[in-house]
């Protein structure tokens, strides 16, 4: 330490210092499975939040329609006030949910990385079904081509 209380860096030779390791320590299969389950639960919660975010967008749209009704259709004055309030509240609600969803997705990515799962390689049931269907369609197409050649005489 120096006289002012701050740590000073000592020069070290790179040959003597061991290289730092950044790999995660090995974990048990039970802990890995628990992390994957937690990531799945958080993903389901994020999906629910996205529904609420869409509802917030709808509230903004309803507010805009109410403002339109007041300005162009000469509706009552309270319609304008309510429309502006709905637009502001819906926008704030949606913005908070947008930020929360964004951070939640980052969190799920970090959990999966900690569990040793590549988040980019994770397949959903829907994508797996789509891949299976395209494989079946390709096989059917090849069979049709072979069958189509034999029918021509």
Supply database-style keywords.
153 residues; mainly alpha
In short:
The protein has 153 residues and is mainly α. It has 3 helices and no strands. It has a domain at 29-119.
Question: Topology, pairings included?
Answer:
Blueprint lengths: L28 H45 L3 H38 L10 H27 L2
Structural class: mainly alpha
The pLDDT mean sits at 81
Rounded to an integer, what's the Rg over CA atoms? 29 Å
SSE topology string? HHH
In total, how many beta strands?
0
Low-confidence stretches: none
Tell me what portion of residues adopts beta-strand conformation: under 5%
Tally of contiguous helical segments: 3
Outline, from the CA principal axes? elongated
What about the largest sheet? none
User: Termini, distance in Å?
Assistant: 95 Å
Helix content: over 70%
Question: How would you characterize this protein structure?
Answer:
Keywords: Membrane, Transmembrane, Transmembrane helix. The chain crosses the membrane at residues 51-69, 75-98. This is DUF202 domain-containing protein. It comes from Parafannyhessea umbonata. 72% of the residues lie in helices and 0% in strands. The protein has helices spanning 29-73, 77-114, 125-151. The chain is built from three helices and no strands. It has a domain at 29-119. The model has no long low-confidence stretch (mean pLDDT 81). With 153 residues, the chain is mostly helical.
């Amino acid at each position: 330490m120096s006289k002012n209380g701050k740590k000073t860096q000592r020069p070290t030779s790179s040959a003597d210092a061991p290289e730092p390791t950044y790999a995660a320590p090995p974990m048990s299969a039970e802990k890995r499975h628990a992390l994957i389950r937690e990531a799945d639960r958080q993903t389901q919660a994020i999906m629910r939040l996205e529904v609420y975010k869409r509802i917030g967008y709808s509230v903004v749209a309803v507010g805009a329609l109410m403002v339109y009704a007041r300005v162009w259709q000469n509706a009552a004055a309270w319609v304008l006030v309510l429309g502006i309030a709905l637009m502001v509240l819906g926008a704030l609600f949606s913005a908070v949910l947008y930020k929360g969803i964004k951070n939640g997705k980052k969190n799920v990515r970090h959990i999966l990385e900690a569990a040793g799962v590549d988040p980019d390689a994770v397949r959903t049931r829907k994508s797996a079904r789509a891949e299976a269907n395209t494989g079946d369609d390709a096989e059917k197409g090849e069979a049709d081509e072979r069958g189509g050649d034999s029918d021509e005489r």
